[in-house]
Write a structure and sequence with these properties.
The protein is mainly α. The chain is 75% helix and 9% strand. It contains three helices and two strands, in the order αββαα. The chain has helices at residues 3-29, 48-59, 61-86; strands at residues 35-38, 41-44. It has a two-stranded antiparallel ribbon.
Length: 87
């Protein structure tokens, strides 16, 4: 595997970990609840069945640590690849 392909793979890993961590922050700020209070009373939240599962995965501390390690490792690898190619 060439350095260019490895850089692309590491870029994809860092993007995925970043998106996961953004979902974590989103669910910490605004958690998904089954019912939303409105002027009409309680309304079932749209997409609850999907987002409740995603929220449970995103808030799990083990997954947050794994995403942080993957992000740090991929950023380090991209930095080393860039430094190796420019020297």
């Amino acid at each position: 595997m060439g350095y260019r392909n490895l850089f692309i793979v590491m870029s994809g890993l860092s993007s995925g970990a970043t998106i996961f961590l953004l979902f974590t922050v989103l669910f910490k700020i605004n958690p998904v609840t089954e019912y939303t209070n409105s002027s009409f009373g309680q309304i079932k939240t749209m997409g609850y069945d999907f987002f409740s599962q995603l929220q449970r995965i995103a808030i799990d501390p083990t997954n947050i640590v794994i995403a942080g390690v993957v992000l740090a490792f991929s950023m380090y690898c991209m930095m080393e690849i860039k430094r190796y190619q420019t020297s």
